[in-house]
Amino acid sequence: MTARAGSGTSTLRRLARVGFLLVALGFGAWVVVGQWDEIRAGFARLSWASLALSLVAVLAALCGGMMTWRALLADLGSPLPLRAGARVFFVGQLGKYIPGSLWPVIAQMEMGRELGVPRSRSAAAFFLTLPVQLGSGLVVSGVALLAALPGSVAPYAWVFLLIPVLAVAFEPRVINAVLGFGLRKLRREPLERPLTRRGMLTALGWALLGWIAYGLHLAVIVHDLGSSGFSAVLFSIGAFALSWCLGIMTFVVPAGAGVREVAMVAVLAPVLDQGSAIAAALCSRVVIILGDLLCAGLAGLAARRAEGSRKDHASGKAV
Fold first, then answer.
1. How the protein sits in the membrane (predicted)?
2. How far apart are CA 99 and CA 117, in angstroms?
């Protein structure tokens, strides 16, 4: 009876996971199909080599985001193996294409629980990742834009007022106090291990590398659309980080859809004409969607192979 119940639960979890993936993929396709003519025109202006380089940079950036989250989760007491952590993070992140802000964390909580990670710890790592990405992204965008084209920062000066606030929030004592207060209000058990300064700095380091990789992916696209040189690379890093941060602040649309593109077109105005800026924003969106799908698929396959190897090893020992 217990075995049957366990098998039924496993089947339900598998079906729920498949349903989650199908819904996420549907919304991701909807984002692309809605602007297909403009996207196709933009891709027609890019070379295959540029698209390949841009995708490689996106994959590196997504891995940086995963390592940011994994560093925070490990510091809180749940170090996950690389393959298992990648599967939880990348598959869960597909939930950002579904309207609403909670789908990724719900998916990560459920998949993490199967690996022994308490739900509260998964939720804490997820919600800590957002301010780490936002704060590091604002720093990167401010420095890069000022270095490349100082006047381009002026229209967005109000955004950078958040940096001092986030700097205070990065202090582990502050974060631990806020987490403890929130868990008490939710009547949940407190976290077993507080966040440390070393863990926060490690997460920030990975986040910074991720932003640089994202900027390089945009720089490759911008190069084909008419703006090249070292200053264009710096500007692309700052422009992408700033537009992404504006998208992070918008939780009601799938993955900031539309908000990030509008912001990117505006930020790119000093280096590209409007048509080229729109093409850059839309092509960037599609390359990132493709990167999300590749990372989720590869991470899931790698984790499944690792699990199969462990089972084969265990059965060999039993024999």
1. Multi-pass membrane protein
2. 26
